[in-house]
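Subject — a protein and its fold
Encoding — discrete vocabulary of local shapes:
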Amino acid sequence: MVSKKSTTLKVILLSLALGISVSSCTNPGSGLIDKTTGVNDKTAGGYVKQDPAQQEYKDVSTTAEKLINEKSPDRNFKITELLEVYTQVVSGTNYKLICKYTDKSGANTAEIVIYKDLQGKFSLTSEGATTTMTVKSTISMSDKEDNPSVNDSTQSLTLEFSSPLNADTLSGEVKLYMLKSNGEQVEEPSTATIDKNNSMLLNIAKKDGTKFTEGEEYKVAISKNVKSTDGRTLEKDFTGYFATNYSLNLGSVGIPELNGARSLIVCVSDIHLGGDIAYSEFKSNETPFVDFLTKIKQSPNVKELVIAGDLIDEWFIPAQTDTFEGKTQADFVKKVATTHKPVIDALNNIITDNKVKVTYVPGNHDLLITEEDIKSILPGISQARDVKGLGTYSPADHSEIAFEHGHRYNIFCAPDPISNRSITKTDSILPPGYFFTRIATASVVEKAIAKKNGTVIPPVIIPNVTGDSENPYFLYWQTLKNLLINLPIQEGFNDKIIKTNIDGFTADYAMSDVFPSQNTSNGPIDAVLYKGMAETWDQRQELNLVPVNIPVNDAIKYAALSTDLDDKSETQYFKNPASNKRIVVFGHSHAAFVRPSVNTKSQKTIYANSGTWIDNNPGTGSTTMNFVVITPPKTNATTEYVNIYTYSKDGTITRLPNPQAITNLNK
């Protein structure tokens, strides 16, 4: 079976960033007050708000409890809930704890300050009942209007106060607003009722009893005039923002809140259609993918389908195999279309229906596939291309969005129109990742066991006397060596096993042709293929329209990091002052997730990775059958949503964590 071993290949190839790396999901969460009080980030006196759930602060609260009981042994003081924590770094550290407690006099809320000196010794600074209340929400809220937290629609939301509420102080002091695209805040008729079983809980709902409307942004405002039964108030007015997500429904039913409007932009990538099912990575997922495409066609709400690269796989082919079998690339593409006829038919059905625009963007595994090749199997499809093997797509009416595969920024996978032209005598662009993918695929097919006898271990090279100029080649050799150790093949290091007859290459090559080499210890580092790759990297980036230059050492060294591709959304777009993109979607890494960020103008931005549809996608938490859905604001609404989903073989759609929203993009 190829599929089980293919998982091993994917884990290893992620290090080379050949289009199969696994990304870790981070969430800067700019401006979020996720289920917290209205006090955000910093308070007067230089205190910084911290997460009370962290173990460090739980330990500090235990210490505080001990210090108070040492001071008053008969009090029986016990902290029952840590509400908030603030820290202030002076010569040591001050910890301010807002907590619920019990003692022999009953239950109350206190503010405790303890100090830890530079030797780690704690002392009690102050402790006393608070004169203010705190409040937190049962749903995620933000303190920023342009960065609302995203929640599923619900019938009501609950706010939990730190003290029992006085019902007589609520009238007119708790309000719910719906925010509109023209800046208007429309007050929603709402109810605010104290929970019958817990007077510290306040339930807020729409007066008509319906759920919060999907696709809308809401503001909750609570005046500090609201009081507890013992006269406590909030330190300041509480304001929280949240947006209600859409309940995705592909197929003919659609999303009711969109009223039949076509606005959804759906993105898939990394399907990897191969010409030979024997070693294809896309077999068992073909039927559900066709089912997914059928639902896209039926949906009354989908406006565009973007295929962000690696639709066709011209790389994942065993080294010993003649890719074109003595024929042409056009013949290969037709063979792929025949092998995966149900997929091609489903795509053509969408295209000819002429209701959903379908756009193809090249990836690294199909960077040689020409516009004419794609047209030959998908006539009528739109294609987004800039230089050969690359493309970026922004929908005509949504210039804030950019879709691309992401290989443009990877030294192993970006088109190389320079290094090998003295060999091919053509306008060849195949990057080094192609050759190693061929070797790695052979390892998968052969199911070879790692050898220790030396023939599959490349000859050692060491940094030489020429210094920094050849350091990139040493880094390159290290990367390839580590991968080859984990993906051995049965043939020898010098055996000419890599059949080409592609992109101007006609010879058969050995692993020794792919690896940098050193004839004498401490001598110059040389190469057969990709000779001069480091020296021409800057020029290669210019030719490939890379906006922000990536230093060659960084390009090689960090390409092995799982987050490298995702970080390029920051450097090339969000932290690039020349870019106006607010939403960027890459494929390539096969790691589906979404995360927020901010640009140089302090505006919220969103990055999403569209994942993959291959049968087996390894890595902790990795999924497959992924797709991104961008939902622009509906009429008069403020909010544009970015969600990532997985499709299952029974047709179930599951949303992945951390949905994001941006408001008022046109302001």
Observations:
- Residues 268 and 627 are 5 Å apart (CA to CA).
